[in-house]
Amino acid sequence: MLRATLRTVTLTEAIAATISYAVVAVILMVDVIGREVFYTSFLGLQQLAVYGAIIAGFLGLTLAASDNAHLRPALLDRLTPPRLEQLVQRLGDVVSAAFFFSGAWICWSFVAHSMDSGDRAPVLYFLLWPLQLVIPYAFASAGLKHLIFAADPALKPAASETMG
Fold first, then answer.
1. Which Pfam families match (predicted)?
2. Rg (CA), the chain
C-alpha cells in the first residue's frame, strides 16, 4: 500500500511538473516570437511563465524527496557505526518529515493570510492564493514521503553517489 501511494503521488507530481515546464516553454516561445517576428508583446506572459516555473520548482522539491536526491552533508555518515546505520537513517527521515510538516504549516499560514487579504498578481490581477497552494503542498508531500521512508526503508531509493 505504501509503495502504491508513493508511486501514484510521485507520478502525478512528475506529470504536473512536466506540464508546468512545458507551459513555461510555450509561453516564453510565444512571447519571443511575438516580439521578434510580429513586433508585439503580450501583457503578462512573462509573469505567467514565472508562476509556472515556481509551480514546477516546488514540485521538483517533492520529486527530489521521492528520489532521495536532496543535497545533504555526508560528514556524519562516516561517524555512524554500521550497526546503527539503519536506525540513524530512519531517525533522519523522521526529523526530515517533522521539518517538512513544520514548513507546510508555516506556508499554509502564509497562503491563508494571502486568502484573507485578497492578494492579487501584479499586471494580471488574479488571486494569488490558488497558485500559492503548491508551496504548502510541496512541503507536506515531502514530509509524507519521508514518513513513508521511515516506516518502510526498503521504499527509499539509494542515495546517488554523485550527491555525497
1. DctQ (PF04290)
2. 20
The three-state DSSP-derived secondary structure of 93-122 is: HHHHHHHHHHHHHHHHHHHHHHHHHCCECC
Nearest to residue 6, comparing CAs of 72, 63, 88, 69? Answer: 63
Which positions ≥6 away from 133 have C-beta within 8 Å?
111
Residue 17 CB neighbour total at 10 angstroms: 19
What is the four-CA torsion angle of 158, 160, 163, 164, rounded to 10 degrees? 60
C-alpha angle 9-94-140 in degrees, rounded to nearest 5:
35
At 112-128, the pLDDT tens digits run 999 999 999 988 899 99
Residues above pLDDT 90, as percent of the chain: 77
Give the distance, in angstroms, between the CA of residue 73 and the centroid of all CA atoms in the same chain.
20
